[in-house]
Amino acid sequence: MRVDIITIFPKMFAPVLEESIIKRAQAKGRVKIFVHDLRKFTQDRHRKVDDRPFGGGSGMVMSAQPIFDAVRAIKQNQRTREPKNQRTILLCPQGKRLDQQAVRRLARYKQLILICGHYEGVDERVRQFLADEEVSIGDYVLTGGELPAMVLVDTLVRLVPGVLGDKNSLNFESFEGNLLEYPHYTRPANFRGMTVPPTLLSGDHKKIESWRKKEALERTRQRRPDLLKKKRKRGEITNE
Ligand SMILES: C[S@@+](CC[C@H](N)C(=O)[O-])C[C@H]1O[C@@H](n2cnc3c(N)ncnc32)[C@H](O)[C@@H]1O
After folding, report:
1. Phi/psi of residue 26, each to 5°?
2. pTM of the predicted model as reported, rounded to 2 decimal places
């Protein structure tokens, strides 16, 4: 998978992309991530990438020209040119809210181009004529699209085959199959009088598996009944 990020603050990305699992995924060649400075694409001689909104009002709007030219240059520059392999995404609080299902869908593309907005947002024509879709990371407003882009990249990278060391660690995770994950414990079995459920110490794998299933279901029922509704709709559970 290849991800191209278009931003006016390229330096923001290094601390996230150059650490931990994302760093290792790049080193192993599982994922290629390129950060592009939007200012390099502006035709304005002062390297301006924004302008005042038509119709007046407060704040600035990011201009269409540098964003259109950046996306065009990125698309021309790489090998996965087939449109069905590419997706151009505008990070935007008005977009569809990101969830694990959307992450799984997006992870199937060979190349994602992420556009980070700022100020009042981007010229509407970017949304209408350039972006394939808009993604929001939640119902709140951040100052820019950089943190949302990093969130999206992090969620995607861990789904790329071979990135997570233990292949089982993706099997039963929160939101996979519309359930929250069961609780985890590690040594010691008794920490200051707080003990671990005996089943987990029993060595009986069948019992452990059924305990985990029950806990996952119970947890989801308590914290996210909306997920169970989805599960029921799909016929994955018939009674609770
Ligand atoms: C201050 S916001 C613009 C908000 C815009 N005026 C509105 O009310 O919809 C600036 C940029 O931050 C990014 N952004 C802010 N909140 C976001 C969110 N929840 N999800 C994704 N991107 C977000 C977008 O790229 C957006 O263009």
Report:
1. -70, -40
2. 0.93
